[in-house]
Amino acid sequence: MNFVEELRWRGMLHDITPETEEYLLKNKTTGYIGFDPTADSLHIGSLVPIILLMHFQKAGHNPIALVGGATGMVGDPSGKSDERNLLDEATLNKNIAGVKSQLARFLNFDGATENAAQLVNNYDWMKEISLIEFVRDVGKHITVNYMMAKDSVKKRLDSEAKTGMSFTEFTYQLFQGYDFYHLYKEKNCMLQMGGSDQWGNITTGTELIRRKAQGKAYALTCKLITKADGSKFGKTAGGNIWLDANRTSPYKFYQYWLNSSDEDAEKYIKIFTFLDEKTIETLIAEHKEAPHLRILQKKIGEEVTVMTHGKEAYDNAIKASAILFGKSTASDLKALDEQTFLDVFDGVPQAEIKHEVIETGLGIVPAFAENGFLKSNGEVRRALKENSISVNKEKVKEDYVITTSDLIADKFVLLQRGKKSYFLLKVV
């Protein structure tokens, strides 16, 4: 498999140093991508570099995922207008553990595999180096002029920049450059990859290898993901879409892809799935014939959710997606975990009631009229006569009494009038 050509037709390739494609075609190569542990979970913006490493491994090469225990202490200025807060060691260690466990879902680290992935932490080699050593052995090989020419530095030193750049951030590219040099020397790593905003940091590494080791190394970056409407990829009104199911439920994760625009979906199907070119072309053609069916969005959601969370989580996300509009039952609702249930009914008005009220039994009329859902007992009774009142998606009569057996996730009851009017009772 031609790794570079695979990235090219998928629209992922951005920058590449001369002779890289030829080298990769002729040589089984070790290459790496770095992940800074700024949180205890990666988000979907990190999926692109992860998928880059997956393609690299599928092409027969040896991938290294580097977790930046050292560089995470410094903070990458690339693409940032302000210096980020530095993390303490305990937080970093927690974040590193979270990132490591997530990377293991996507890459094959089985040592019995011929081109098994490796996981490294740059803190392991940086922690023993003194400042004097680093300045003498690394700093002398890269000029200030060279470092100042990088976009990540220039933008922060521009006269219109809100803040300048600390010496800590300025040294970041040296740290990342040294990582590449170290892996080149210790693991024969010939290639560094990353997002296009990392080009400056990555080429500092190739330059350090050239000057310090008289060697030749290669660099490749992929395009940063943008959305057709100009909004930021991977973010919603509620914040980041995370790879950790405890931070972003598989249902909400699936919904993010399902809500992609048609224009974005045509791009995402190539980048975020491993479907071949012919299959993708067929799907795009089918989608254009019946865009209302959202064929592309559903397929992307399926592929990425299964890859990230597994088939069972995807199946549950589909069931949850059908609850608002499908013919679901009380048992379907009760099968949802609390977070998924809240995600499905996000924004639905709610009221709190005491647990003892449910234990005693709550009549259907007061349940609807006394908690702010419907205006009066009379309105509830009229709705009951119209057979438009439901508890947990199931039609009820006026003699129905809500008890603890109706509780979803041990604390919710879903009230409904008609097809689309919902209200939540939260038991406290």
Report the helical percentage: 40-55%
* Rg computed from alpha carbons, rounded to a whole number of angstroms: 27 Å
Counted by DSSP, the helix tally is 21
Number of strands: 15
Describe this structure in words.
With 428 residues, the protein is an alpha/beta fold. It is built from 21 helices and 15 strands. The strands form 4 sheets. A 6-stranded mixed beta sheet has the order 1-6-5-2-3-4, with helices on both faces. Strands 9-15-14-11-12 form a 5-stranded mixed beta sheet. Strand 2, helix 3 and strand 3 form a beta-alpha-beta unit. Helix 12 packs across helix 16, helix 13 packs across helix 15 and helix 15 crosses helix 16. The termini are far apart. The relative contact order is 0.10.
Topology overview:
Elements: H1 3-9, E1 13-16, H2 20-26, E2 30-35, H3 47-58, E3 62-67, H4 89-106, E4 118-121, H5 123-126, H6 131-137, H7 144-148, H8 151-157, H9 167-170, H10 172-187, E5 189-195, H11 199-213, E6 218-222, E7 235-236, E8 239-240, H12 250-258, H13 262-271, H14 277-289, H15 295-309, H16 311-323, H17 330-334, H18 338-344, E9 350-353, H19 355-360, E10 362-363, H20 364-369, H21 377-385, E11 389-391, E12 394-395, E13 401-402, E14 412-417, E15 421-427
Parallel strand pairs: 2-3, 2-5, 3-4, 5-6, 9-15
Antiparallel strand pairs: 1-6, 7-8, 10-13, 11-12, 11-14, 14-15
Describe what is shown at a glance.
The protein is an alpha/beta fold. It has helices at residues 3-9, 20-26, 47-58, 89-106, 123-126, 131-137, 144-148, 151-157, 167-170, 172-187, 199-213, 250-258, 262-271, 277-289, 295-309, 311-323, 330-334, 338-344, 355-360, 364-369, 377-385; strands at residues 13-16, 30-35, 62-67, 118-121, 189-195, 218-222, 235-236, 239-240, 350-353, 362-363, 389-391, 394-395, 401-402, 412-417, 421-427.
